[in-house]
Amino acid sequence: MRSLRRWAGDTAGLLLVFTVVGLTRLFPPKWKLRRIAVSAEVRAEREAAERKLLARVREIEAGVPWLRPLDIVIRDECVDVRGNHISFFGASPSRRQSMTCRMSAFIIFSTDGDPEDAAAEIHRSFPLPDGLSADGIAESLHWDTDEGKVAPYVAPKAVRTRVTRRHGERSLEQLREEHGVLCMWALYGQAYFTVV
User: Fold this and answer.
1) Which of 41, 103, 110, 32 has its CA nearest to residue 73?
2) 3-state SS string over 31-89?
């Protein structure tokens, strides 16, 4: 009887260990996701995504000569997508994914005239891709309205975030005070790294 209890205790202990190890493999802890996010493998993918995104920014600057960026914000984020059933720059993440890393660029500019006219001119002379471009970048134009002001998207549950700005550290409010209505050309890149 005593050996049966001991065997049952040992079995329950082993089951607990296997359950914890299995869950850790299925749902890596945040510290492990952070470690992956700064690894050499992810860094190489990040640099490739950044080159592609910055090439598109340069294309836009060359293709719309009147557009003078007040700021260009590059936001690189690795996000814990477990339990997310909402969209993160496109299709909802798979229920099996743990972390998704994406990079986005936001070109902040102002126009002398009506932002809607500027957007129409951009669409005529430099059409935005309908959906994803060949480079896997989704683009959209936004501007300040009474309903809301433009601002770069910030993902919830970020495991790692890096923001770089080309033109200094003036806030969007400071830029609005100096230039009036702000416009934003948003470029959302596809995931460059995913942890399943």
Assistant:
1) 103
2) HHHHHHHCCHHHHHHHHHHHHHHHHHHHHHHHHCCCCCCCEEEEEEEEEECCCCCCCCC
Whole-structure pTM value: 0.78
Residue 121 CA to residue 100 CA, distance in Å, equals 35
DSSP 8-state secondary structure symbol assigned to residue 30: H
Listed residue (134, 123, 132) closest to 187, CA to CA: 132
CA–CA separation, 129 vs 98, rounded Å? 30
- Please state, in angstroms and rounded to a whole number, the distance separating the CA atoms of residues 23 and 99: 16
Residue 36 and residue 192 in contact, taking contact as beta carbons nearer than 8 Å: no
User: What distance in Å separates the CA atoms of residue 176 and residue 182, rounded to the nearest whole number?
Assistant: 6
Per-residue pLDDT of the chain (196 residues; tens, 9 = 90+): 556 566 556 665 555 544 444 444 556 788 899 999 999 999 999 999 999 999 999 999 998 989 989 999 999 999 988 865 444 444 444 556 789 999 999 999 999 889 999 999 988 888 777 777 777 899 999 999 999 999 987 777 788 999 999 887 889 999 999 999 999 999 999 999 999 8
Residues 122/65, Cβ–Cβ less than 8 Å: no
Structure tokens at 105: 């660029």
C-alpha distance from residue 70 to each of 26, 52, 164 (Å): 44, 21, 14
